[in-house]
Specification:
two-stranded antiparallel sheet, 6 strands, 35% helix, 148 residues, Glutaredoxin, antioxidant activity, Thioredoxin_CS, disordered N terminus, alpha+beta, cytochrome c-type biogenesis
Length: 148
């Protein structure tokens, strides 16, 4: 009986570990970097106090609506804030792309940037380009993901 319980617990733990979530967005999408196949994810760090970050929002919104099918865009608040504050910030600034929720805390395959705005590109093979520093444009984002 004891061996059966141990086997059950071990199998349960293995099943639980196979479906890890690294990032959850406010739109309900989840990302697990180890199982991403054929996806490119653009991660843009911003802050409300960062004027260049606010200036690039229209370009990010446009990229979000015109991006290639295999590309995702996620915004990340540089400052810690609650999910409710994040939702208010999104509404206030007209952000149209998904934002990473702060709870649960996201896990990215790169270090948090030291300066803003900063954009990273996670390739389908798991490699990371960036940070791309400064304001991004529709053209620079398309170039970063290899879109025409």
């Amino acid at each position: 009986m004891k061996l059966a319980v141990i086997a059950f617990v071990a199998s349960f733990m293995l099943l639980g570990c196979s479906e890890s979530v690294d990032v959850t967005t406010d739109t309900g999408n989840t990302y697990d970097w180890s199982s991403m196949q054929g996806q490119t994810v653009v991660v843009n760090y911003f802050a409300e106090w960062c004027a260049p970050c606010l200036r690039e929002l229209p370009e990010l919104n446009e990229f979000h609506h015109q991006k290639p099918e295999n590309v995702e865009l996620i915004g990340v608040s540089f400052d810690p804030m609650s999910n409710e504050d994040l939702a208010a910030l999104k509404k206030k600034h007209g952000i149209e792309f998904p934002l990473s929720l702060t709870q649960p805390a996201p896990a990215f395959p790169f270090e948090r940037p030291n300066m803003l705005p900063a954009t990273y590109v996670i390739r389908p093979d798991g490699s990371v380009d960036g940070p791309l520093m400064g304001e991004q444009t529709l053209d620079s984002l398309n170039n970063a993901v290899g879109a025409e």
